[in-house]
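Notes to self after the call with IL:
- keep both proteins in one doc
- input above output, always
- annotate only the second one for now

Protein 1:
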Amino acid sequence: MPKTLKEIAKFLNGELIGDGEVAINQIKSLEDAGSGDLSILVSSKYEEALAKSGASGFLVPKDIKNTHDRNVIKVDYPSIALSRAIGLIMPEAIPHPKGVHKTAVISESASIGKNVAVGPYAVISDNARLGDDTIIYPYCYIGKGVSIGDHCIFYPNVVIREKVIVGNRVIIHPGTVVGGDGFGYDTQRDGTHFKIPQLGTVVVEDDVEIGACVTIDRARFDKTVIGKGSKIDNLCQIAHNVVIGPYCLIAAQTGIAGSTTLGRNVVFGGQVGVADHLKIGDFVMAGAKTGISKSFPAKSILFGYPARQVDKARDMIASLGLLPKLYERVRALEAKIKELEKK
């Protein structure tokens, strides 16, 4: 059902300029939008684009000066506002399964909340709990004693091992395993490896999103923790007893070894590697492929292998480019020394 710009502005708590009775059916980019579409201007630097776009309405930043007589809604964060508007204007844009499929296997001792959806061939084990409005896609496995909060979405082939605790509004993408055994072995005198039982669990706090094919290992005794609001990209490895603080961003193919602790709002680029038993302070940032082998204080900006403060790392990288010339100068000096020695 179409929504008017006036309804959208009220929903977003934005400032409407223009005709509030214009009906909006879809959301599209500036280039593709036409009549009946809502679009977005992410920065006032590009305000000239308003005059060229065919959209019927726009979400724009509050500091915009020239609206070119277009219908606009001024908001603090246009991109965030657009994401919220999708749920109002296009509620079925991302369809989810509904109800419990007849092939799903649900234990009689499991607790299932209101409006829960469970897809084909999903398994909900003994004493597991699913909160209200949670969606479990096909072929997921929810282990014994798992607790899952409200409004969660687990996409196909997600595995949640026994006794794992998941908060509210958690999204987990396909193929991820939460609560697999930590990589722990004692090497015996004869060279064989004795498996160390992993008796702990994993706690995933509220508003976490975990990408596809991520592995988060259970702790040996206590718990591995993914802090509130943190976002983990695809193909990451989080080892046993790791504690990730709130609102961290972990990009693809990052690996964090056991018992390392991250503070709040830590940001790791792709393929960052972190050694075990380290402490990474609040607001630390590490560029792609950084290798972190020691602890760093809050607000450090790191790059390189081994990790260094970014200014020092840049100087070292720049110096590497001078090595060929330096090599040639040394060879020339050696040649002159040999000539002098002959004399």
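Protein 2 (the one to annotate):
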Amino acid sequence: MNYQKVILVGNVTKDAKRQTSKKGDIHFTTFSLAVSNGKDSTTYFPVVAFRKLGEVTAKYVAKGSQALVEGRIQLSGKGQLSIIADKVQFGARPKAVEKSE
């Protein structure tokens, strides 16, 4: 049996960006999450959310906001690690951040 699950809580480092695959058949949203490992250490994780979760994420995730991401690790053929989100919970947003709908 194989099983993989990652749960990360951190701050969004850039606004979520809605994208479409090269073939144009898959919509997804990307953003970066900074997770503190203690006083002086932070790890940055690229996160990808697909389909409906991607739509909602693009609408509510903004730079500086907090987020909890639940998902799995994916390693690309180029050796780049990313988190494929199964669930995103939105936390506090900075007061100055207002995304247009």
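Annotation: The two ends are 43 Å apart (CA to CA). Residues 18 and 52 are 12 Å apart (CA to CA).
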